[in-house]
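dude i think i finally got it to work??
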Amino acid sequence: MTLLKTPYIEKKPSSLRYYQEGVPNIDVDAWTLNITSLTGNSVKLDRSALLTLPQFTHHRRMVCVCNWSIKRYWQGVLLEDVLTEARIDTQVTANTFLKQTSVGTTDKGVYESWIRLDEALERSTILAHSVDGEPLPLEQGYPLRLIDFGLYGYKNVKGLTSIEVVDQWQLGHWERIAGYALDGTVKPKRYWAVDLKSHQFTQNKGEVTDW
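look at this
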């Protein structure tokens, strides 16, 4: 299948990046994703193991809390498939959450975020390793990024190195320093659509699918 690259406006929104320089010096051959169950059992998957799981391409819209959005072709694996591979029960309750942790940088440390696991599974959350047919660039989350399209981007960790099923919902980086909502659900409002080069309004809460 031929993937169409999404056109950008000339100047990208500055918040398109979490790390302006990305998460440098990652040896993808040594990198692993650590998956931990609610009981504390852990499984590590390297890149080759992730690529043996069913691969999906989702043409879906990511939305930033800074009032812009972009629709791109995201490639990766379903969160549900990763949890199943780690032998973690995906029939979870509303009081079950997923803690994400980034590889981190020397100056900024790690980035952490907590999301509702049941809602993430319902929305077919993916662990993306590529975008528009190319591996994720550093500023987009190389080598792996979780994306729940019903949540603002700050809830989706770039440079992902671990996911952990937990029973507590905690404040992440931007909730602590900027007062962003713990829930992080995309709100119905007007956003600048980078790919459409125009302002668009959505009346729906959660994932934007109407434009």
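The CA atoms of residues 3 and 133 lie 6 Å apart.
im so relieved honestly
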